[in-house]
Amino acid sequence: MINELKNRFEYNQDTGKFIDIESNKESGWITDNGYRIIGFKGTKYRAHRLAWLIIYGEFPENDIDHINGNRDDNRISNLRSVTRSENLKNQKIRSDNSSGVIGVSWGRSNSKWHVRIKSDVKYLYLGSFVDFFEACCVRKSAEVFYGFHVNHGRAV
C-alpha cells in the first residue's frame, strides 16, 4: 500500500501537505471537526495517519496527537503517537468554557471557584477557592503533576 500511496501522492513532511501527482493540487478536504481527509482506493483516511504510514512504514497503533492543536497541520514534526489518555492531555479549551481555564468553574451555590482534573479515567476534585488566580494555579500545578502537555487548554 505504501508504494501505491507514494505513486499517487507526494507527501511533503516539512509542510504536511499531500499533493496529487496527476493534478498537482493539494489532496483531500477538511471535515467539520478540522481533520483533512484523503480518499484513496475507495477508503477515506485521515491525512495524519497516512503521513505516519509513509514516514514510519505502518499505521500507528495508538492515537495521533497534533501537538500544536491544528488538526490540518500534518507535518511529521507536529505528529506524535500517543495513547488516548495522553491525547486527552493536550486538548484545546472547549467553546462552552465560561471561566477561560479548563477544569475551573464557578460554583453558584457557594460563590467559589471549583477545580477538578480528569486523570486517566476518573475526575479528581482539587478544591474550591474564593480567589480565581489561586484556583487557576492549583489546576495548572495539577496538570504538571499528572503529565499534561504544555499546550493543554490553549484557545486555538
Write up this protein.
The chain is α+β, with helices and mostly antiparallel strands. Helices cover 23% and strands 30% of the residues. The protein folds into two domains: 2-82, Homing Intron 3 (I-Ppo) Encoded Endonuclease, Chain A (Alpha-Beta Complex), CATH 3.90.75.20; 88-145, GCC-box Binding Domain (2-Layer Sandwich), CATH 3.30.730. The chain has four helices and ten strands. A three-stranded antiparallel β-sheet has the order 3-4-5. Strand 8 (104-107) and strand 9 form a beta hairpin. The chain is elongated. The two termini are 34 Å apart.
In short:
The protein has 156 residues and is α+β, with helices and mostly antiparallel strands. Helix content is 23%, strand content 30%.
Oligomeric state of the chains? single chain
CATH class of the largest domain: Alpha Beta
Shape: elongated
Within the largest sheet, what's the order of strands? Answer: 3-4-5
- Overall number of domains: 2
Runs in which pLDDT lies below 50 for 5 or more consecutive residues are: none
Mean pLDDT: 92
Assigned CATH architecture of the largest domain: Alpha-Beta Complex
Helix count, DSSP H or I runs of 4 or more residues: 4
Strand content: 25-35%
Number of strands: 10
> Which structural class do the helices and strands define?
alpha+beta
CATH topology of the largest domain: Homing Intron 3 (I-Ppo) Encoded Endonuclease, Chain A
How much helix is in the residues? 10-25%
**What is the distance, rounded to the nearest whole angstrom, between the alpha carbons of the first and last residues?**
34 Å
